[in-house]
Amino acid sequence: MGCGQSQIAFEPSAPPISSSSSESIESDSDSDDPRPSRTAYLENYPDPLGHFKSFFIIDKVSEIIANRDNESNWNALWFRKMNISFSHSLYMKSFTNHLAIDIIGEIRNPPFKKWRLKMNLKIIIHNLSNEDDSLIYNIRDEWFESDNEEIRYIALRKITNLRLDDLLDENFGFVKNGQMKLETDIRVLQLEGADQPMVMNYRLAPEDPKHAYTMTIGDEKFYCSRALMDFHSQMEKGDKYFESYTDSKPSNGEIEHFLDGVHGFPVGIGGRGARGGYCAIFYLCEKLKMRALVQRAELVLIQYFHDIPNFYLDSARMYNCRRLIHAWLNRKDSIRRKEVKRLKVKKMTGEMMKAIVKKVFEVGWK
C-alpha cells in the first residue's frame, strides 16, 4: 500500500504556509463534487472532527544521529480519533543534514476512493535550556490528499533549520541528557471522501463542574462525565482517585483513547497505533477500578490477533488481563519453556499460573 509524500522547507514562526498546490485544491472546493464534506456536527463545538495533541520525549538522540543512515528513524505512536489517525516521526539522514519532521495522516477503513482532509498544524521543538528559544512552526489550512484510490497513508515532510551535527552538542539547547522534546497540535478542519463520526472534545469543560470528573494530565485538564465514571468504576468515596485523577506526565494522545472507551466508543485496534492506547487503558483502569472496560479491550485484542503479540501478553501479566492469557493458551498446541520464562510467571497472579501449569500438563513442553 503506497504512501503519498510532499516535502516543504519552512522556517520557524513563519506566516501560515499557502503553497500553490493547496491553493488549487481550495479553488476546487466549490465544484459539484458529490463526495461528502463535513466541517461541523454541533454548533459552537470546538474541533468536532478531531483534535490531536501530543507531547513526546525522544531518547538516545546522539545514538539515533550516529546510526542515522543504518537504522530507521524515531517514530511516534499512532493516535486515533474514530476514522482518522495521525503519527509523526523525526527524519535524520546524512543527505539532508537537517532535522526533518514527518507528519503522517491515515484514514481508517477507507472507502477505496480518493479522500482528503484539511487541518491546522502546530509543531514545537522545545529548547531545553531556554524555553523562549523553542522553535514553533504553524501551518494553517494544510490539505492531506490521496492521489490514489487505494492509499490510506499520506505523509507531509517539514524540513527544519536544525543541523544534525549541532544536535550532538548539548550546549546547543535542543538536546539535554540525550533527550529531545517534541509537541504537536493537529486540528482537523474538513474531511471529504470519507466519513468521520462525531469526536468528543475532552478538553471542553462542562457548564456545571459537579457533573464532571477531572483528569489533570501534565498541565492540561480533561473532563469525563461523572455519571459515566460512577457507572464504570468500582471506586468508593475515600479512594485516592475518587474525586479526580492527576498525573504529572504530559499527554501523548493516549488519555483520549481511554476516555473514548469510557464514553462507549469502539476500542480501536490498529497495529502500530494501538499499543500505547491499550497500555494506557489497562493502566488507568487499574488505577480507577474499571474492570468492565478492561474486558472490552481484551475482547477486541482476542478477536483481532490469532497469535497474541508479546507486548500484550506482558500487559496482561502486569494488569491481570486474564482473558488474554487464557486465549493465548487455548490457541497453543505446545508450550515452550522460553515463552513461559519470558512471561515472568513468578510475577503473575495465582489464577494465571494455574492456567499455564494446566496447559503444560495437557500438551507438554516443547
Automatic annotation (TrEMBL):
Superkingdom, natural source: Eukaryota
Region (Disordered), start-end ranges: 1-40
Protein name listed in UniProt: MATH domain-containing protein
Organism: Caenorhabditis remanei (Caenorhabditis vulgaris)
